[in-house]
C-alpha cells in the first residue's frame, strides 16, 4: 500500500515537472519571438476581437492565465493535483501547434522550398490623432523569384478534429496578414528573428529581404506578384488546407478598423476609463468560452446559486451521456475510415463488394454549398457601399421560428481544461 502511494506521488511529480517546464518554455518563447504583446495589435488579436472584444482587451491587458511555474510547484506541494493536471492539459494543447510547426518546417526544407519562418511585419496605423502599432507574425512565407514571382503565406492551426469550414477568426487573421504584406511590400517594415529572439534582419522591404535570404529578385510592386494565403489545419493524424485567400482591400480595411477599435479599447481600459464589463462579449453558445482565461469574471456566466443536488446529478449524467456519444461517434468514424481504406485497396471501381450478410461500396459525393456571409458582405460593401449592403442583406435574411435550447457548462472557476474538452453541452429541449 505504501509503495503504491509512493509511486502515485512520483507520477504526479513527473506531471508537475512537465507542466512547469512547458510553462517556462512557452513564456520564454513568446517573449523572444513575439515581444511584449500588450504593446501592439497582432493579427491573431483581430480574430479574437471579432468574436469577443472583452476577451481580446483582457488578453492585451493581462498575461493570459497568469499561471507561473512557481505556482505549479506550490500546487504540487499542497497536493492539488487537479490544478496541476489542468495546467498541463492546457499547455499540451497550446504547445501541440508549435511541435507540428517544427515538423512542417522540416517537410518544407526537405522539399527544397525557399521559405521564411516567423516573418514579422511591423508598421503603424494612423487613426485620427492616435497611432496604432501593428505587427503580423507569419508562420511560413514561401518565396519564388524569377519570371513568375510568387509568395505564399502559410498559417498553421492545430485542432483536435479537422473543421469542415474555417473559423471566421482564422480568416480574419490570414486577411490581415495578406493586407499588411501587400500594403507594406516596398516599405522598411520587415524583420526576422532567431529562435532566441536575436534580430537577424530589421527594417527591410520584402524584396530586399528576399534578395538577402535567397538572392531572389522580386518586383517593386506587389501587384506584379502572385500572392496567396493558405490556412493549414492539422490534427495529430490528418491535415486540411483552406484557401487560397487573396489580398482584399475591403477585408484589409475591415481588419484595420478592427485593430483601431481594439487598441482604443485597450488604452481606455488601461487608463481606467472603461471596465471590461462595458465591452461587447461573445453571446450565446460560443466555443471560444471553453478556453477563455477570462470566463470566470464574464457577465455571461454570472448566475444565481441554486441548492439542488438532484439537478447537479442530472446535469452530470447528461454530461456523461454526451461524452459517451462523442466517444461512440469517434469509434464509428474510425471504423468507417478503415472500411473505406479496405475498399480502395480492392480496386472495386465503384461497384459493390459483398461480405456475406452485407454489401458495401464507397462513392464520391458532392460537397456542401455554403454562403460565406462575411465575404459576401465585404464584396457588396466594396461595390455598392455599406448602407445599401446592409439593406440587401436584411431583405435577404429569413428568421426561423423561436425554439428552446439547453446550455450546460461546468462553472469556469471550477472546471479543469481536460474536463472542458467535453464541458459545454447543447441539446434541443
Could you outline the blueprint of secondary structure elements for this entry?
Elements: H1 2-34, E1 41-42, H2 43-51, H3 53-61, H4 69-77, H5 81-110, E2 115-127, E3 130-144, E4 150-158, H6 168-183, E5 190-193, E6 199-204, H7 206-214, E7 226-234, E8 239-245, H8 249-270, H9 309-345, E9 353-354, E10 359-360, H10 373-384, H11 386-395, E11 405-408, H12 417-420, E12 425-428
Parallel strand pairs: 1-3, 4-7
Antiparallel strand pairs: 2-3, 2-5, 3-4, 5-6, 7-8, 9-10, 11-12
Helix pairs in contact: 1-4, 1-5, 2-3, 2-6, 2-8, 3-8, 6-8, 8-10, 10-11
Question: Which terms summarize this structure?
Answer:
alpha+beta; Lambda Exonuclease, Chain A; 12 helices; 429 residues; eight-stranded mixed sheet; 12 strands
Largest sheet: 8 strands, mixed
Along the chain, the helix and strand elements come as HEHHHHEEEHEEHEEHHEEHHEHE
Briefly note the CATH topology name of the largest domain.
Answer: Lambda Exonuclease, Chain A
Q: Tell me the number of structural domains.
A: 2
Q: Rounded to an integer, what's the Rg over CA atoms?
A: 25 Å
Shape-level CATH architecture of the largest domain:
Alpha-Beta Complex
Structural class: alpha+beta
Portion of residues within helices: 40-55%
Describe the protein's architecture and organization.
It is a single chain. With 429 residues, the chain is α+β, with helices and mostly antiparallel strands. It has 2 domains: 2-282, Lambda Exonuclease, Chain A (Alpha-Beta Complex), CATH 3.90.320; 311-363. 47% of the residues lie in helices and 18% in strands. It is built from 12 helices and 12 strands. The protein has helices at residues 2-34, 43-51, 53-61, 69-77, 81-110, 168-183, 206-214, 249-270, 309-345, 373-384, 386-395, 417-420; strands spanning 41-42, 115-127, 130-144, 150-158, 190-193, 199-204, 226-234, 239-245, 353-354, 359-360, 405-408, 425-428. Strands 1, 2, 3, 4, 5, 6, 7 and 8 form an 8-stranded mixed β-sheet that branches. A two-stranded antiparallel sheet has the order 9-10. Helix 6 packs across helix 8 (249-270). The longest helix has 37 residues, at 309-345.
Amino acid at each position: 500500500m505504501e509503495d503504491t502511494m509512493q509511486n502515485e506521488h512520483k507520477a504526479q511529480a513527473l506531471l508537475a515537472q512537465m507542466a512547469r517546464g512547458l510553462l517556462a518554455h512557452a513564456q520564454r518563447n513568446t517573449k523572444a519571438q513575439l515581444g511584449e504583446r500588450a504593446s501592439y495589435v497582432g493579427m491573431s488579436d483581430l480574430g479574437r476581437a471579432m468574436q469577443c472584444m472583452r476577451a481580446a482587451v483582457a488578453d492585451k491587458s493581462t498575461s493570459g492565465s497568469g499561471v507561473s511555474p512557481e505556482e505549479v510547484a506550490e500546487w504540487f506541494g499542497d497536493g492539488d493535483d487537479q490544478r496541476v493536471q489542468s495546467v498541463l492539459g492546457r499547455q499540451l494543447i497550446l504547445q501541440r501547434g508549435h511541435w507540428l510547426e517544427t515538423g512542417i518546417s522540416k517537410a518544407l526544407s526537405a522539399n527544397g522550398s525557399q521559405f521564411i519562418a516567423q516573418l514579422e511585419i511591423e508598421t503603424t496605423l494612423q487613426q485620427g490623432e492616435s497611432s496604432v502599432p501593428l505587427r503580423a507574425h507569419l508562420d511560413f512565407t514561401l518565396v519564388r523569384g524569377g519570371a513568375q514571382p510568387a509568395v505564399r503565406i502559410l498559417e498553421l492551426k492545430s485542432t483536435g478534429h479537422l473543421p469542415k469550414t474555417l473559423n471566421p477568426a482564422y480568416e480574419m487573421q490570414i486577411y490581415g496578414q495578406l493586407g499588411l504584406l501587400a500594403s507594406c511590400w516596398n516599405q522598411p517594415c520587415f524583420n526576422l528573428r532567431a529562435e532566441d529572439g536575436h534580430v537577424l534582419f530589421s527594417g527591410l522591404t520584402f524584396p530586399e529581404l528576399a534578395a538577402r535570404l535567397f538572392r531572389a529578385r522580386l518586383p517593386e510592386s506587389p501587384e506584379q506578384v502572385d500572392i496567396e494565403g493558405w490556412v493549414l489545419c492539422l490534427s495529430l493524424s490528418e491535415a486540411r488546407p483552406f484557401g487560397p485567400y487573396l489580398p482584399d482591400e475591403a477585408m484589409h480595411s475591415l481588419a484595420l478598423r478592427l485593430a483601431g477599435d481594439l487598441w482604443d479599447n485597450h488604452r481606455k481600459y488601461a487608463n481606467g476609463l472603461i471596465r471590461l464589463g462595458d465591452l461587447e462579449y461573445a453571446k450565446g453558445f460560443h466555443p471560444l468560452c471553453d478556453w477563455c482565461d477570462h470566463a470566470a469574471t464574464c457577465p455571461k456566466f454570472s448566475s444565481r446559486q441554486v441548492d439542488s443536488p438532484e439537478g447537479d446529478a442530472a446535469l452530470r449524467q447528461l454530461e456523461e451521456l454526451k461524452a459517451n456519444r462523442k466517444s461512440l461517434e469517434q469509434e464509428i468514424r474510425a471504423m468507417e475510415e478503415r472500411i473505406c481504406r479496405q475498399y480502395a485497396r480492392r480496386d472495386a471501381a465503384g461497384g459493390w463488394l459483398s461480405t456475406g450478410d452485407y454489401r458495401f461500396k464507397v462513392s464520391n459525393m458532392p460537397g456542401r454549398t455554403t454562403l460565406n456571409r462575411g465575404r459576401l458582405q465585404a464584396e457588396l460593401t466594396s461595390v455598392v457601399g455599406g448602407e445599401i449592403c446592409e439593406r440587401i442583406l436584411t431583405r435577404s435574411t429569413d428568421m426561423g421560428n423561436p425554439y428552446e435550447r439547453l446550455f450546460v457548462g461546468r462553472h469556469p472557476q471550477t472546471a479543469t481544461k481536460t474536463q472542458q474538452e467535453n464541458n459545454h453541452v447543447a441539446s434541443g429541449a
